[in-house]
Design a protein that fits this description.
Layout lengths: L1 H12 L2 H16 L4 H9 L1 H8 L1 H16 L4 H9 L1 H7 L2
Helix pairs in contact: 1-2, 1-4, 2-5, 3-6, 4-5, 5-6
Length: about 90
């Protein structure tokens, strides 16, 4: 579960091209993980992730995953996503 936290911390210090190249694939992997707890963590920290990878990057790479969180089979994941809905909606055009 520390993988997402590590991605957030790395995103604070890496340049944008390295984030796209090295972190986004891991974040996407966590977003579709078999474990609902991992998906929950990504949904819960979506705004923290967005702040550190950048709004444009988040729009491009994470919006489809965020929408999947809203329809997840686990209620905990859906609840975490709904709690961030207002904030995430602000970054969308």
């Amino acid at each position: 579960m520390q993988g997402i936290d590590s991605c957030i911390h790395f995103a604070k210090v890496l340049p944008a091209n390295k984030i796209n190249q090295n972190l986004i694939p891991y974040i996407k992997k966590y977003a579709v993980d078999k474990s609902w707890r991992i998906r929950y963590l990504v949904a819960d920290k979506i705004m923290e992730i967005t702040e550190n990878i950048g709004v444009e990057c988040s729009r491009e790479h994470l919006t489809s995953y965020y929408c999947q969180f809203l329809e997840d089979t686990e209620s905990e994941v859906r609840t975490a996503a709904v709690r961030r809905l207002g904030d995430y909606a602000k970054i969308l055009d």
